[in-house]
Write a structure and sequence with these properties.
The chain has 132 residues and is mainly alpha-helical. It has helices at 3-21, 33-44, 101-104, 109-130, and strands at residues 50-54, 60-64. It has a single domain (3-67, 78-130), classed as Zn peptidases (Aminopeptidase). The chain is built from 4 helices and 2 strands. The chain starts with a helix and ends with a helix.
């Protein structure tokens, strides 16, 4: 891959993840619907048809599909949008605000909190599927 393409992919993942982390989906209560709507809007910009489902009020999920050929095995990518509780008083930065990806890579508590709690893989999976 050329350096410019890698930079574009990094910027796209960074922006998606930064926006997603700002949405407080602490469980309980969850409130994942706002995050699901954000992801659906992001995917729909690239032509994906998305469906939103709620198992309970404000406990939303987004489902989309990338059609493939019947010649290859199918693949399901599954994740969740809620995160464990984070007390802002225990953090040096607000747990739902991501200013820069640079300090994230240093293994801070923020990294272990949400990015390791599926949000990081959500951002990478979504960006990768949109580029196919």
């Amino acid at each position: 891959m050329c350096a410019q393409l890698l930079k574009e992919i990094e910027e796209e993942i960074t922006n998606l993840l930064s926006d997603l982390l700002r949405i407080d989906t602490t469980n309980p209560p969850g409130n994942e619907t706002e995050a699901a709507k954000y992801l659906a809007k992001n995917l729909e910009k690239d032509g994906f048809k998305c469906e939103l489902f709620e198992s309970a009020p404000e406990r939303g999920s987004v489902v989309t599909r990338l059609k493939g050929s019947s010649e290859k095995p199918r693949l399901l990518l599954l994740s969740h949008l809620d995160v464990v509780a984070a007390n802002p008083k225990e953090w040096s930065v607000h747990p739902f605000f991501w200013r820069s990806q640079k300090w994230i890579c240093l293994g801070t508590r923020r990294f272990r909190h949400e990015i390791d709690d599926c949000h990081g893989s959500d951002g990478v999976k979504i960006t990768e599927k949109k580029r196919r």
